[in-house]
Write a structure and sequence with these properties.
This protein is α/β, with parallel strands linked by helices and about 700 residues long. It contains 26 helices and twelve strands. Strands 1, 2, 3, 4, 5, 6 and 7 form a seven-stranded mixed beta sheet that branches. The protein has a five-stranded parallel beta sheet with strand order 9-8-10-11-12, with helices on both faces. The longest helix has about 70 residues, at about 295-365. About 30% of the residues are buried.
């Protein structure tokens, strides 16, 4: 029979709701306990309940809220004698900072907790603090010091019951060994951690261990086990997420935070009213003072009002500054996420595309049948276009920041459009469409401009037209509008009889990831980026796209562009070989490449020119074989299992400074030519490469 308005009443209700996974109600009751303690001036009780609130947030992985609660609790404990709970608050605050990767703040908190525990002669948390400090040392790259910390925890026989602590120490050592590329040793530690974890209920720890095991098996080329562990990790991660959502759903959490915010606002209003009462009283005192010393009172009143205005202005400026800081941080995070995505796309697409281009080149060199030559030429054109397309996608941020460069080279517009039509002929046949190209004869043969960006624009628009049209007609026209001051104004128009675009979607189709409707996306596929890129490229080239459409009857995209006319009508600029192919004969080449398809292509391309090629698949092998053998040239893939190409090159340069080393890489946003050359490489070939460029680079270096 407890009092309904008492600490024990609120505590019991909070604990009960935690047991039945109703964390929203648990948070509500613990907050009522905090408010009750504050109203009744019970500092210790308020500190304890604020610590409990932080512990709930910690369990729910709401680390920012946990940090705020633990910090408030510490402020309250500072006015009280040192206690075990005071030290625990510092410990958990330190762990929260580790979760947020604020390692400097974490170390300060853990040292403070250790100091208080030592003062109180309490040793229960010694090993836990040691574990967290080991994690901090590991993050700072002090692997030997961290390993010693973790090893003492594992060998401590006095903490037999704390299995999750030992499992975590084994897991952390496994991560260190993985960083050091001692994969078999890392696997041994992770397996032991996994065995210990099986005896506990620490699912978050189990999820981390499974992910690490997957990575190690992938490094050891045991892809079956790697996939199995990764699948288990993902399933467990999903179960943990579901369990956390059952404890406290997003809506429940947001409602609780809104309620707390409303209470804070109400408290601020209450304080403001009290302050206003105090101000009124102060004014009354001032009025009475005026009767005694009028001049001094008027001066004091003036200063008082000015101070209030200044404080309000300072508060407003502080709030605006904080808003700007938050907005800046969000923009930086978004930019970083986008850069990482583009980097991953670059690497993952370039490697298989290199294989496609290489195999096409090899097939063309082996004198294919006349009937096959058409298909191989179309494949080669499409591969070359896709290479350029990937590069343009990666540089779309340059377009947005006005840093993109526009080419001005000779090109044959008529031939360009015919090649595009030829490469998309199969797409037209697939949907049984009539596909027409109408080129104004008055258009000069050779123009000066950027054929790559123009190709990307036209191919995107034609692809869209062919994709959204079935049993219909797609027509591409290029019409000369005028030729003045050695400049040709040309109108391009792509017309289809497809599904058309609703009137309310005519503007939104040019936005990123927009395709008119979910049904269209499901039926026809695609990313919704094509028209966005088209719009940006046309604007970059000085034009403006126009769209006319009737739903169910088709669409028409048109744009006008100006090109300089080559008055002499010189032919297109073509690269010529600057070397004699005899330089390749009997040249001994070491190719370091882990992808089997690229191994085959590289070897075949080298041998076709009379070179002698030896293939290996890792950086470690490269170092050993170069020590014991003499090569005329080394082709070094940058992304290799184990030691990567840059590290292998650096080690080779310690004993061999003369053999030319050429980097072959699906270069990402985090790499550039200057960075690769700084490791001792002589040149860089970017995947996917054109065969002519490949041979030319080799010739220049031998």
């Amino acid at each position: 029979m407890e009092k309904t308005d008492s600490l024990s009443y609120y505590d019991n209700l909070s604990n009960y709701n935690i047991k039945i996974n109703k964390y929203k109600d648990a948070l509500s009751f613990i907050q009522k306990a905090i408010n009750y303690s504050e109203i009744n001036n019970k500092t210790k009780e308020q500190a304890d309940r604020t610590f409990n609130l932080g512990s709930i947030y910690f369990e729910l992985a709401k680390y920012n809220d946990a940090i705020e609660s633990f910090s408030e609790s510490i402020t309250l404990y500072e006015s009280l004698p040192p206690s075990s709970r005071y030290a625990q608050t510092y410990y958990y605050l330190g762990v929260c900072h580790i979760k947020k990767e604020n390692y400097t703040s974490a170390e300060i908190c853990l040292n403070k907790a250790q100091s208080i525990f030592k003062e109180l002669n309490i040793s229960d948390f010694n090993e836990s603090i040691k574990l967290q400090k080991g994690i901090i040392y590991k993050s700072a790259g002090k692997y030997d010091l961290a390993s010693r910390m973790f090893s003492t925890i594992i060998s401590n026989q006095e903490i037999v019951s704390q299995l999750d602590l030992k499992a975590e120490a084994l897991y952390q050592i496994g991560l260190i060994e993985k960083i050091k590329n001692r994969n078999n040793l890392a696997l041994n530690y992770l397996n032991k951690a996994y065995e210990l974890n099986a005896k506990t209920k620490n699912l978050e720890q189990k999820s981390n261990i499974l992910l690490a095991l997957s990575d190690i098996h992938e490094r050891l080329l045991d892809r079956s086990s790697a996939y199995s562990y990764l699948k288990s990790h993902l399933n467990l991660k999903e179960n943990i997420s579901i369990a956390n959502n059952e404890k406290l759903g997003i809506d429940d959490y947001e409602k609780f935070k809104e309620t707390q915010q409303a209470k804070k606002i109400e408290q601020i209003k209450k304080q403001k009213k009290e302050k206003e009462k105090e101000n009124k009283f102060a004014k009354l005192i001032n009025i009475l003072s005026i009767a005694l010393i009028s001049i001094l009172s008027l001066l004091s009143l003036s200063l008082y009002k000015n101070n209030i205005i200044r404080n309000k202005s300072n508060l407003l400026l502080t709030e605006k500054n904080n808003e700007l800081i938050v907005a800046k941080e969000k923009a930086e995070k978004a930019s970083q996420a986008r850069s990482e995505f583009l980097s991953t796309v670059s690497h993952e697409l370039r490697t298989p595309l290199n294989a496609i281009n290489g195999i096409t080149h090899l097939l063309l060199e082996e004198k294919p049948k006349k009937s096959q030559l058409h298909y191989l030429s179309s494949l080669q054109f499409s591969g070359n276009y896709l290479t350029t397309f990937i590069n343009d996608i990666l540089e779309i941020n340059k377009i947005e920041s006005d840093k993109a460069e526009i080419e001005n080279i000779n090109f044959n517009l008529k031939k360009l459009l015919k090649d595009i039509k030829k490469s998309l002929k199969e797409v037209a046949l697939k949907n049984e469409n009539q596909f027409h190209l109408i080129i104004d004869d008055a258009i000069p043969d050779i123009l000066i401009g950027d054929p790559t960006k123009l190709s990307q624009i036209v191919m995107n628009l034609i692809n869209n037209a062919l994709k959204f049209t079935k049993n219909g007609k797609v027509t591409i026209t290029a019409k000369l509008l005028s030729t003045e001051n050695n400049t040709a104004a040309i109108r391009f128009q792509i017309i289809d009889t497809g599904i058309g675009i609703p009137q309310d979607k005519l503007e939104s189709v040019f936005e990123s990831f927009s395709q008119g409707s979910i049904e269209i996306n499901r039926k026809y596929g695609g990313t919704g980026l094509g028209l966005t890129i088209v719009n940006k490229l046309i604007n970059l080239l000085g034009g403006q796209i126009k769209l006319e459409s009737i739903e169910g009857k088709g669409a028409s995209f048109s744009f006008d562009l100006d090109f300089k006319v080559n008055e002499l009508q010189l032919p297109e600029e073509k690269k010529t070989k600057t070397y004699d192919e005899s330089v390749f004969k009997n040249i001994k080449v070491l190719a370091v490449e882990d992808n089997q398809i690229n191994q085959m292509i590289t070897k075949k391309m080298l041998e076709n020119k009379g070179m002698l090629c030896e293939i290996i698949g890792s950086g470690e092998e490269a170092i050993e074989i170069v020590k014991n053998n003499k090569f005329d040239l080394i082709l070094m893939d940058v992304h290799l299992p184990g030691i990567n190409g840059t590290v292998a090159t650096k080690k080779i340069r310690e004993f061999d400074t003369t053999t030319p080393i050429i980097a072959i890489t699906a270069i990402s946003l985090n790499e550039n030519r200057e960075m690769l050359l700084s490791f001792g490489m002589n040149d860089v070939i970017t995947k996917p490469f054109a065969p002519a460029d490949f041979y030319d680079t080799i010739a220049q270096n031998i």
